Amino acid sequence: MTTQKTSLPRQRAFLVDVERCIGCFTCAMACKNYYHQETGVVWRQLYPLDEAIYPHRERAFFSLACNHCENPACLNACPVKAYEKREDGVVVHHQDRCIGCGNCIRSCPYGAPRYNPVLKKAEKCSLCHERLDAGKQPACVQSCPVRALRLVDIAALSTTDAANAVQYPAGYPEMPQVNPSTRFIMPRTPRVVRR
Ligand code: SF4
Ligand code: SF4
C-alpha cells in the first residue's frame, strides 16, 4: 500500500478509523440532517468491507465522503469555477455558481459530487468549512459515538497517525492523479480465543 504525501502546506482531511467504526450510520445521518439534504441525496455513505478484504464484514466499514483531493478533478472539470480549493486544503463547491452541467459528477473518480434533482445542481461534502471557521468540528466527526472519524491535517500528522494511516487500503481505488486526502486506519483481524 503506497501513500502519496501532500505538497501543500496544509491539507485538512478525514481520518477514518476502520478499527473503531461500528457501522451505525450516525455520521451519514448527521450530515444529512445538518444540511437538510433532499431525498436520495447523500454526501457521506457507509460501505461494508468485502469479505475477501476483511473476513469479519459485520464489523468493518468505510465511512466515505469527498476526499478533498490535492488536485481535484471536480475543480478542473467545472466550466464556471464553482469549485474552490482553500488554503487549508478544503475543496468547496459554491452552489450559487453551479449550472448543473454534471461535469464534476462525471469526472470525480470517487463519485463524491451528487446531483440534486430538486435544485438541478451538483453538491458534495464541504468538510463543514463554515463550522471549521467557527472553531467547530464537522457534523459527521462530532456525531460519531466511537470517535471513528477525525479531522486531521495530513501535512502535519502526529507520529502515531503517520505510522498507522494508509491512503489506499484494499478495495479503495488508487488515484494518484488527484491524490485523495482521506486516510484510513485499518482494523486488526480479531484474535481467536480457544478454551
Ligand atoms: S473526491 Fe471528487 S469531488 Fe472530492 S475533491 Fe476529489 S475529485 Fe473533487
Ligand atoms: S458514526 Fe462513527 S461508528 Fe457510526 S458509522 Fe459513522 S464512523 Fe462508523
Oligomer: single chain
Bound molecules: iron/sulfur cluster
Major sheet strand order: 8-1-9
Overall shape: it is globular
Helices, by number, come to: 6
Q: Cα distance, first to last residue? A: 36 Å
Q: Please give the share of residues in helix.
A: 10-25%
Order of helices and strands: EHEEHEEHEEHHEHE
Q: What's the rounded overall pLDDT mean? A: 93
Determine the strand fraction and express it as a percent band.
Answer: 15-25%
Radius of gyration: 17 Å
Helix-and-strand structural type: alpha+beta
Number of strands: 9
Question: Low-confidence parts, pLDDT < 50 over ≥5 residues?
Answer: none
Largest sheet: 3 strands, mixed
Any key phrases for this structure?
two-stranded antiparallel ribbon, 3-stranded mixed β-sheet, 195 residues, 18% helix, 6 helices, binds iron/sulfur cluster, globular, alpha+beta
Question: Helix and strand layout, with pairings?
Answer:
Layout: E1 12-17, H1 26-34, E2 45-48, E3 61-64, H2 73-77, E4 83-85, E5 91-93, H3 103-107, E6 114-116, E7 121-123, H4 129-133, H5 139-143, E8 149-153, H6 159-164, E9 183-185
Parallel strand pairs: 1-9
Antiparallel strand pairs: 1-8, 2-3, 4-5, 6-7
Bound molecules: iron/sulfur cluster (2 copies).
